[in-house]
Specification:
The complex is a heterodimer of chains A (523) and B (232). Helix content of chain A is 52%, strand content 13%. By secondary structure, chain A is of the alpha/beta class. Chain A has an eight-stranded mixed β-sheet with strand order 7-6-5-8-9-11-10-14, with helices on both faces. In chain A, helix 1 packs antiparallel against helix 5. Chain A starts with a helix and ends in a 10-residue tail after the last helix. The relative contact order of chain A is 0.09. Chain B is an all-alpha fold and 232 residues long. The chains are: A alpha/beta (523), B mainly alpha (232).
Chain lengths: 523, 232
Amino acid sequence: MGFAVALAVAAAAGFIALSYEILWYRVISYASWSLPGAFGLLLAAYLFGLAIGSRIAGAFCKDKTRAGDTKQLRALAIFTFVANVVAWLVVPAFGQTAKTYDWPPALAAVAVAAALLGAILPLVAHFGIKPDERAGVNLSYVYLANIVGSAAGSLVTGFVFLDLWPIQTIGAVVACVGMVLVAALVAIAELPRSSRLASLVVLLGVSVGLVKATPSVYDRIWERLLYKHDFDAKSTRFLDIVETKSGVITVTQDGTVYGGGAYDGRVSTSIRFDRNGIFRAHALGAMHPAPKRVLMIGLATGAWAQVVAHLPRVEKLTVVEINPGYLTLISKYDEVKSLLSNPKVEIAVDDGRRWLNRHADERFDAVVMNTTWNWRAHSTNLLSVEFLELVRSRLAPGGIFYFNTTSSDDAKKTASTVFPHALRVYNFMAVGDSPFAFDKERWRATLTTMTIDGAPILDAAEDQSLLEDLVRYADSVNDPPRDDGIEKRESVLARVDAAGARVITDDNMVTEWRQVLRFQPPP
Amino acid sequence: MRAWIYLVFLLSGFAALLYQIVWQRALYAIYGINIESVTMVVTAFMLGLGVGSLAGGVVSKDAKRPVLLYFSLVELGIGLFGIASLSVFHAVGEVTLGMGALATFFVTFLLVLVPTVLMGSTLPLLVAHLVRENKNVGKSVGTLYFVNTLGSAFASAASVLFILGRAGQAGSVRLAALLNVTVSLLAYVAHRRAMRPREVAETLAKAMTVDHASDDERADDAAEQPKTVETV
């Protein structure tokens, strides 16, 4: 193999390997609800496979196989072919194992595929580099070519393909790129003309077969990963799927939304038939007398933003959402789509923490965050002391930060430690530097005067009993603490301290590592 | 000797991945975890490794250069950067937060350039060392890549199962730096052991030269002795 060919093969192998890795990363992210431990174990399996592959390749590199020997291209072509097919099968392997053992067994498939892909680089180095004094420098070129190919895979597949196509299409495209590499190796190998043509025809046939087989082999991969043992081949099908480079959003037939595989709420703003605890959004009206300027971090289904935008005295709602796919989703649902045209609402697509950092001059009467699960990867960035201090610096006098702790004692402790005034409202914490209360009369006024898109949220005649029940919720602050009630700061601190809660910092990332492995039941 | 080299390269891979995990987290907290930021950080890491690979290859080209000593110094450099890394990231992050995407990528690239270049240079350096011994590129690359990647695989699993939860970001980085210093010392010992036969040979050669010179001097002295005696 010539040195130039070695460079090209190393680059192409890097592109293919990293493209597959991106797909596997996306699949395990969805299957595990973005569990940080799952990402670490995926990387471990991938690297372990690469290590084993390079070891096996090293053992195959006998002294007889000298650099420049084009016969070796045949062996490399066969090897690359097998690696490509096995790597293409990893995503379906996740889907198959999810039914019985969730995602961990599929890591074995990742390791096998990575072993095959990882063996390519040492083989290329051996066939393409002469064992002389320039071995080190020539290896560095091959290694660089592999890295450049990997970077290109990260950019093209992670940035372009993921925004253009669903995962099955990308799987087919990457597999075809792999087959092009195999074909190139066959084309330059020392083969009789007839054998070469026959090999290329077979490769073309296999490629067409892969493309045609992909829809059925990758069939309903997201449904399989979410429903696990409840997946039914005949009936389980999502109502909607939005795949972008920022993530995968799926909607079940009953309107429940899963972002990256994790429960992300429902497209429902109804407090009359409260299926998603939406009263917690209305409750902001009871705690702040005039939340004129509100910042909401995270948009998701749009239900919370729709409610907050219609709270009495709200003049402007700024929403920061990291995944633009939610805008697509919201535009499809009548209950929330007016958000996109509401002149009071401004939506920025960005990372919430970065947005806050970049808008040092902005001040808000309330910052609302219906945070995702506290144990998901990078949740620390939105729950730590450092983040809470950042939010504090953006609060107007009398402002409150109101966020979902997803029942984490660590998050409750952190909030109650950083801020001198705090209330727990169900699993939310409302915190601020000035005293505030869950005001019963303001709560009643909110419930009786509020409308969404012109429609009252409660019917004065029909919902009188419900209204009184809801208003009485304000009294729960005086009752013994209960999980769904209101609780004062001192009581919260005493309880979470007794439970061994810790203050979350950027450094300790407590909530993410409290339980490394956890498996979510199907919906 | 080779087992020694493989052990230090395994530890080197362990430390490198620990850094990568912590640094990526630290950078994501600064620049965001949206896909643009993640891609920028990952690409900056890879480019740094690539540039380092080139640098290591160029340095290893000259057969007279002590690549093991260079490897030892590189590991020490990674460890020293590692200790200061989180402080550097946060300081730079505060200053550069408002910049645009391209400028952010450039700053991220510069931030990780020093350590990733050093990390990337390690494989070519050690490949050059082993190929000088066994004349087999595939075997050398395969085995070194194997132990280094195996170290990284262990680090990836250990970091999520044990290290990050117990040590946090700062503690994990300190652990990685400690590993780098250990690797540096071990590599230096390996370098000294590899140099010893050459030093012994050079010392012997020098001694032989001195001995010959002394013999010649003695012969000259002997030749002159009678004259001196006669003179006296």
